[in-house]
Write a structure and sequence with these properties.
By secondary structure, this protein is α/β, with parallel strands linked by helices. The chain folds into two domains: 2-186 and 389-424, Glycogen Phosphorylase B (Rossmann fold); 196-386, Rossmann fold (3-Layer(aba) Sandwich), CATH 3.40.50.2000. The protein has helices spanning 15-23, 60-84, 104-107, 140-146, 149-156, 166-170, 230-243, 268-276, 293-302, 317-324, 335-338, 355-367, 369-386, 389-404, and strands at 2-6, 28-33, 43-47, 91-95, 113-116, 160-163, 180-182, 203-205, 208-210, 215-223, 247-254, 285-289, 305-308, 329-332, 348-350, 407-409, 419-424. α7 packs across α12. The chain is globular, with a radius of gyration of 23 Å.
Amino acid sequence: MKYLFVHQNFPGQFLHIVRHLVRSGQNQVVFISEGNENVIPGVRRVLYKMSRIPPQDGHPGVREFDIGLSRAEAVANAAKTLKGLGFVPDIIIGHHGWGELLNLQDVYPEVPMLGYFEFFYHTDRYDVNFDPEFPLMADMPARIRAKNAINLQALAGPGFGQTPTRFQRDTYPEWARSRISILREGVDLDLCAPDPSVAKKQFKIKNMVVSPKEKLITYVARDLEPYRGFHVFMRALPKILKASPQARVALVGGDGVSYGARLAHGTWREKLLKEVGSELDLSRVHFLGKVMYDEFRALLRRSDAHVYLTYPFVASWSLREAMASGCAIAGSATAPVEEFITHRKTGLLVPFLEPERIADGVLELLEDRKLAKELRQNARAEAEATLCLQDYLRRYEQLMQSVAAGHLPEESVPGEIKKKSPRKTPVRKSKTG
């Protein structure tokens, strides 16, 4: 088959499936993106560059949509060049969040499209007003609604969608859900695997050294910020460190802001250290910044208690990898985490907004070895059953072939993708399919 992928940051969410399609030797894979240094052998890259940058002085609610339309225009121009060279794909796959797919229906009107739907914003639920520490400002509801402009354009266009979790699918309007398949993402279970021997020897990463007698608590996020519970975790640390004098804490993440509002001055790390730093033995608290993937995997294998916290928002890949690595997880009792973690079976669920109870959950994992061992084994077993990368790739390829053939698949969770025949998606069948 001929595949056309689109994502401004090559390869984005499509790394594993693109590698899989290329390895088969039976597919032609072309990828439209902005320029970067990433390379996947066998993939033909077509670069685009936005011809204009939207002005800063426009309405704040319009700027994101403006950027999306500019991307859509640039991607369509790149696709026109491709088509002029004779390339007509059997299916187009991309991420709807950036707006890049919006105009491809004009270039390839008969080619089916499978778009990644990540999150639909609401003014009255999920992440909005979840944390009372950050109340909703009067002008924010209108700006939040405006963030769905690209989402709504994508839903009104042709094609079919996929998303990784039921939580994410259910953020979309009910009328749209029948067009969005749940395709749970997979983890390389060989790369992310338990290794009990790591705890029996000295462990070192960057400036942190952990002896076999010490307990290691791990926390991982792209950036150290409230959306991923950094503030409540820091407030839990005084109790944890006082009750467990042989514990060390490793925090992985940058000082930027991936989600939510930025501080007027400084970083969240600086702010929380100013708030609780005097209550902490900072010789046992290690801010590792961003780490290499091999270091990250080693950290999870050594972890005695892994903390994963998030607003009701998109779950991080690190949660999946922690499960595959057999971590004893204390996760927030929020909907995206509850889809992965069953309380006292595959991890402990703790209230996101209660640092004292977060601390209690971590301490229980450190002190109850029998429970921790059981949770580790169950987390790994759950990952093997529902997060296997090879199963994910098989289901992904099956979904793409189904959409390319014009069928409307039923929602996909680990297991087989079933087809509803003869019902069709509102896509136009490719002449080359």
